[in-house]
């Protein structure tokens, strides 16, 4: 028996691709130097039928049918590219072998119940369709045709798909956009981060063909914000989530450098800071967070930064090179910036109120291990103290004075002391906001106001993993999922959110994976070697594992995420067995079923 893989576009999606109700690209709206301009870019198709050119198709025998057992995956070479061959429940499937997010090898991921989970950042893909089912990332996997002949497995695939290893789902376009009033839209999305963009894309993927407008205070189209502190010298075009042409092709309008000052939910009108008003039918609020600032003397002087934009990050790298840097706050942002600048700056000092970095998130033992790694890379810590004053010389930062009395030389100061939800403009709107400023939503990302949804870092929502406790999860992955759920419920699908939080950070070449929600954990069970930074940590609350973190222990975090996603409970007493069965033997049978 031979297995063949072939890229197949379903008839439904093929008809969508051939349909172009608009006839031409719609205007991409953005501001340049404060002036709104409208541009009609040339339309560039994002996806095409791979069978238009027979020369683009390759077919190859990749293995014998008995070479793979049920539940196994294999990366196979077709000569001009690779595919991921999967056998589950006696059937063979073939999809792209790299995660479209950052290119992780999916063969090292987790296969469970018809989907494969990325070993690096937790994105999930349906093995039958290639569709992305959990995030991060925007694109799906290409799906290839599998045939079995004479007990050999053949794969038939498009050469282009093998090379790109990604597939953008078919989307609708806006009908008769030119007939719309510029001050009226069907869907208004405030915020152009991951939540806002995924919401817009999901609406189009579901066939929504009315007007969609996104607005943002930023000067750029949506970009990969986590890279601002992980890859600080990245330029905006390098970290853009979609090119300009994409927004024109699918009629997603973007208003940049536009700040909403108020929302009138009764009249369904958003009022912008410059006085412009826009009517809407459905509203998504995805404004994210705003960084906290210092309250001490000198906080406004030159060379003191909150990393909020690519320009901020680029400027810090330029000014910090061979200079003295002080970072205030051992937050994820602060620690990532410290790691990035350690080899570039003359000195890096980190000031933190706690006695161990990441203590509340990773626990004291893991925090100390990470602190040691930083110290071994020339980062100097000043713990259990705060900044009392920033001193200048000739208008520029010269010294950072600590409450402990220590004076640090500083040419650049980066502030990473946390953030607050950017929801101040909603205080008089009637939308329910809690005491900390977070927008309260239900499992469908709906606020208390009909037709108004909220998503991303600025919301609290019921987390199924923690018995529907209302939580705030400011993770990149979660913002993607929020945006998708909001879009589906704008279309009245009645879809509830049910995902496992997943995050990652990278410092000095070490990647930390984390899944679950460990807030309030009362114990940490560690397997492996903290000193060698090769370990997995299980965070427990009342004997139940609520989160897991690891370094150099892939794909244990993705495997535990699948256990939690399946509704299973891991008890503290089971941690040894979990590590042995999932990491050492690869046995995934313990994922099946419900309960503990």
Explain the overall architecture.
The chain folds into four domains: 54-164, Rieske Iron-sulfur Protein (3-layer Sandwich); 170-292 and 419-500, 3-Layer(bba) Sandwich (FAD/NAD(P)-binding domain); 304-417, FAD/NAD(P)-binding domain, CATH 3.50.50; 509-592, FAD/NAD-linked reductase, C-terminal dimerisation domain (Enolase-like, domain 1), CATH 3.30.390. The chain starts with 10 loop residues before the first helix and ends in a 12-residue tail after the last helix. The longest helix has 15 residues, at 476-490. 18% of the residues lie in helices and 31% in strands. 47% of the residues are buried. It has 596 residues and is an alpha+beta fold. Helix 3 runs parallel beside helix 10.
Concise description?
By secondary structure, the chain is of the alpha+beta class. Helices cover 18% and strands 31% of the residues. Residues 1-51 and 590-596 have low confidence and may be disordered.
What are the salient characteristics of this protein?
single chain; 596 residues; alpha+beta; Rieske Iron-sulfur Protein; FAD/NAD(P)-binding domain; 4 domains; six-stranded antiparallel β-sheet; five-stranded parallel β-sheet; 12 helices; globular; disordered C terminus; oxidoreductase; electron transport; apoptosis
Which structural class fits the helix and strand makeup? alpha+beta
Mean pLDDT reading: 89
For the secondary structure, the number of strands is: 38
The order of strands across the largest sheet is 3-12-11-6-5-4
Uncertain runs: 1-51, 590-596
How would a crystallographer describe the biggest sheet? 6 strands, antiparallel
- C-alpha geometry: globular
Number of helices: 12
Q: CATH superfamily of the largest domain, called what? A: FAD/NAD(P)-binding domain
N-C termini distance: 40 Å
The residue fraction in helices comes out at: 10-25%
Compute the number of structural domains: 4
Beta-strand portion reads: 25-35%
Class of the largest domain, according to the CATH hierarchy? Alpha Beta
Named CATH architecture of the largest domain: 3-Layer(bba) Sandwich
Rounded to an integer in angstroms, the radius of gyration calculated over CA atoms is: 25 Å
GO molecular function: 2 iron, 2 sulfur cluster binding; metal ion binding; oxidoreductase activity, acting on NAD(P)H
Keywords: 2Fe-2S, Apoptosis, Electron transport, FAD, Flavoprotein, Iron, Iron-sulfur, Metal-binding, Mitochondrion, Oxidoreductase, Transport
Family: Belongs to the FAD-dependent oxidoreductase family.
Organism: Alaudala cheleensis (Asian short-toed lark)
């Amino acid at each position: 028996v031979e297995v063949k893989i072939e890229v197949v576009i379903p008839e439904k999606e093929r008809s969508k691709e051939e349909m172009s109700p608009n006839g031409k690209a719609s205007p991409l709206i953005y501001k340049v130097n404060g002036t709104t301009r409208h541009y009609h870019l040339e339309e560039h198709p994002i996806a095409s039928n791979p069978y238009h050119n027979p020369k683009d198709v390759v077919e190859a025998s990749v293995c014998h049918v008995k070479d793979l057992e049920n539940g196994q995956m294999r990366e196979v070479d077709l000569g001009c590219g690779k595919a991921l061959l999967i056998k589950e429940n006696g059937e063979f499937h073939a999809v792209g072998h790299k995660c479209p997010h950052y290119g992780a090898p999916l063969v090292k991921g987790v296969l469970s119940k018809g989907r494969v989970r990325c070993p690096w950042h937790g994105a999930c893909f349906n093995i039958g369709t290639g569709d992305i089912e959990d995030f991060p990332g925007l694109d799906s996997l290409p799906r290839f045709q599998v045939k079995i002949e004479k007990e050999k497995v053949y794969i038939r695939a498009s050469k282009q798909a093998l090379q790109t290893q990604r597939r953008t789902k078919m989307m609708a376009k806006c009908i008769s956009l030119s007939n719309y009033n510029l001050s009226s839209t069907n869907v208004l999305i405030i915020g152009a981060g991951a939540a806002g963009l995924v919401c817009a894309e999901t609406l189009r993927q579901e066939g929504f063909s009315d007007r969609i407008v996104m607005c943002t205070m930023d000067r750029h189209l949506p970009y990969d914000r986590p890279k601002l502190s992980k890859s600080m010298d990245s330029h905006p075009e390098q970290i853009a989530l979609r090119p300009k042409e994409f927004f024109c092709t699918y009629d997603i309008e973007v208003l940049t450098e536009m700040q909403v000052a108020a929302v009138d939910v009764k009249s369904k009108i958003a009022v912008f800071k410059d006085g412009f008003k826009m009517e809407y039918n459905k509203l998504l609020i995805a404004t994210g967070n705003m960084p906290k600032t210092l309250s001490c003397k000198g906080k406004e002087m030159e060379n003191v930064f909150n990393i909020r934009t690519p320009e901020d990050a680029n400027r810090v790298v330029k000014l910090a090179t061979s200079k003295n840097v002080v970072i205030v706050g051992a937050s994820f942002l602060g620690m990532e910036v410290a790691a990035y600048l350690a080899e570039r700056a003359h000195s890096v000092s980190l000031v933190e109120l706690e006695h161990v970095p990441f203590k509340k998130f990773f626990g004291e033992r893991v925090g100390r291990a990470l602190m040691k790694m930083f110290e071994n890379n020339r980062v100097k810590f000043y713990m259990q103290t705060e900044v009392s004053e920033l001193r200048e010389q000739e208008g520029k930062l010269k010294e950072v004075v600590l409450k402990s009395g220590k004076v640090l030389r500083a040419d650049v100061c980066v502030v990473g002391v946390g953030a607050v939800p950017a929801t101040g403009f909603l205080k008089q709107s009637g939308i329910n906001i809690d005491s900390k400023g977070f927008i309260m939503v239900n499992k469908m990302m709906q606020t208390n106001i009909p037709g108004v949804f909220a998503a991303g870092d600025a919301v609290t929502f019921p987390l199924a993993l923690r018995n529907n406790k209302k939580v705030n999860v400011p993770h990149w992955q979660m913002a993607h999922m929020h945006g998708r759920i909001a879009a589906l419920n704008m279309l009245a699908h009645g879809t509830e959110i049910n995902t496992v939080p997943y995050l990652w950070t990278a410092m000095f070449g070490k990647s930390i994976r984390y899944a679950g929600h460990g807030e309030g954990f009362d114990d940490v069970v560690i397997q492996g070697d903290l000193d060698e930074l090769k370990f997995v940590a299980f965070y427990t609350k009342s004997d139940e594992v609520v989160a897991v973190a690891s370094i150099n222990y892939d794909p244990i975090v993705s495997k535990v995420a699948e256990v939690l996603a399946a509704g299973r409970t891991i008890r503290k007493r089971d941690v040894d067995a979990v590590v042995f069965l999932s990491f050492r033997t690869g046995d995934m049978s313990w994922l099946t079923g419900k309960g503990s």
